[in-house]
Amino acid sequence: MRRVERWIFSSGSAERLAALRIGLCSVLALRLTRTVYVHLAAQPRALFRPLSFMKFFSAMPPRLPVLIVQIIGVAAAAAAAFGWRTRATLPLAWGAGVFLNGMTTSLGKVVHNDVLLLLCLFPLVFAASADVWSLDSRTGRTHRGDPSRYGWPVNTAMIVVAGAYFFAGFAKLVNSGPGWVTGGNMRWILYIASDARPVPNSLALFIAEHTWLAHLVAGGSLLMELTLPIVLFWKRARPVYIAAAAIFHIGIWLTIGLDYWPQPMTVGIVLIDWPAVVARVRLARARPAISPG
Amino acid sequence: MSEEQPLAPARVPVWTRAVVAVFLAAFIVCGLGGIELWPLTGWRLFSVSRQPIDIGWSAVTVDARGEEAPLPLGRMSISYRGASLLVGRFARMKDADREALCEALVTGANGAGAQAVSIRIYRVRLDHSIRSGKRAAPGRATLAYECGNGRVVSVPT
């Protein structure tokens, strides 16, 4: 436990944390531009099935307040991505994101599309994420500080990414056991998804009709989810799992039609060491200039 | 835990460590226990094994002449996105909630161009393992409820 605590609160790079802020806030700003929130505001009361804090409301909030929150949320998320008044704009953006997505998850089913993004952003609400690569630092509002300020938000977000996938796999084992892979489960998921669409889905049907392929897809998905925490211990495994998560979500989108793009984006933003990538790109650009030719 | 940075736990303020500890504890408890405290969640995505036999519910509109038409969910406002899920829970609802849902569906369907006066809800049994081309073979639909004009009639099966 002590070792875990020491790792979470280890020193970090201000640039790495700033990259998380820029990436996650940009994705949040894009997500909050969706029109779904304003449409939901006009929902008849009988269709409202609140979850969590939305139980404080008796119906979907009215359209005007929702629109105001949305405008503030988009502006605050964009401002936080640029690092402008980040101590105020980032919490504001996060609050707006939770509130608006609380509406989308109050339709009778838990909606997970933006959950990982919001959970990874949570530690940044309390962090000094704009000490570099920000308008705040350019205007002298923030300054690079002690490295102990920058490690924990990144490490906490990495634990959340690893945990999200691990718990999704864990829930499958608890609720279904190995039968989730060895039974016909994946075939029925794909058949049911295809049958529910106006036009049958050829890729889903192709996998469902080849039992061995359906088992392979199910086994690969579960393996990926349960072993993703490896990225916390083994840095070199990160690119593999980032690619695996992207393939996994693209596959879900192509076969079942569920669009989870914020989730693999969050995985990439959190797990990739962006300052190292930037340094490599700069080095690669500088090389031809210094080579004797 | 592979990061090579030097360790500096002592310099992180106590309140920061407390926030992180509470947040991660809540995240882990919800994840392991399957607890929904959204945005904290139990991550139960497709966790229950699907079976080929799917017993679901389907709503159709009924016009003044008694003719049925599919509920035009695709043309209805996004705010009706969860309607099909709620139809599936009709049997477990209180009478007042059923009436309210029914009225909302009639209003929504008419807003999408239907001329509904009531809604019929069918219990549909579909076996996805029996295929007819690229589709499941037609299932068996049994009328379960008819509702509209403030009343709900349960049809005995």
In short:
Chain A is mainly alpha-helical and 293 residues long. Chain A has helices spanning 2-8, 14-31, 36-41, 63-82, 86-104, 115-125, 135-138, 148-176, 179-182, 185-195, 202-209, 211-227, 230-233, 238-255, 262-271, 274-290.
Helices, strands, pairings?
The complex is a heterodimer of chains A (293) and B (157).
Chain A: H1 2-8, H2 14-31, H3 36-41, H4 63-82, H5 86-104, H6 115-125, H7 135-138, H8 148-176, H9 179-182, H10 185-195, H11 202-209, H12 211-227, H13 230-233, H14 238-255, H15 262-271, H16 274-290
Helix pairs in contact in A: 2-4, 2-6, 2-8, 2-15, 4-5, 5-6, 6-8, 6-15, 8-12, 8-15, 10-11, 14-15
Chain B: H1 14-33, E1 53-62, E2 68-70, H2 83-87, H3 95-111, E3 118-127, E4 131-132, E5 135-136, E6 140-148, E7 151-154
Antiparallel strand pairs in B: 1-2, 1-3, 3-6, 4-5, 6-7
Structure characteristics:
A: 293 residues, mainly alpha, globular, B: 157 residues, alpha+beta, five-stranded antiparallel β-sheet, two-stranded antiparallel sheet, 3 helices, 27% helix
Commentary on this structure:
The complex is a heterodimer of chains A (293) and B (157). Chain A has helices at 2-8, 14-31, 36-41, 63-82, 86-104, 115-125, 135-138, 148-176, 179-182, 185-195, 202-209, 211-227, 230-233, 238-255, 262-271, 274-290. With 293 residues, chain A is an all-alpha fold. The model of chain A has no long low-confidence stretch (mean pLDDT 96). Chain B is α+β, with helices and mostly antiparallel strands. Chain B has 2 domains: 14-47; 53-154, no CATH class. Chain B has 3 helices and 7 strands; from the N terminus they run αββααβββββ. A 5-stranded antiparallel beta sheet of chain B has the order 2-1-3-6-7, covered by helices on one side. In chain B, strands 4-5 form a two-stranded antiparallel ribbon. The longest helix of chain B is centred in the N-terminal third of the chain and has 20 residues, at 14-33. Chain B is elongated. The chains are: A mainly alpha (293), B alpha+beta (157).
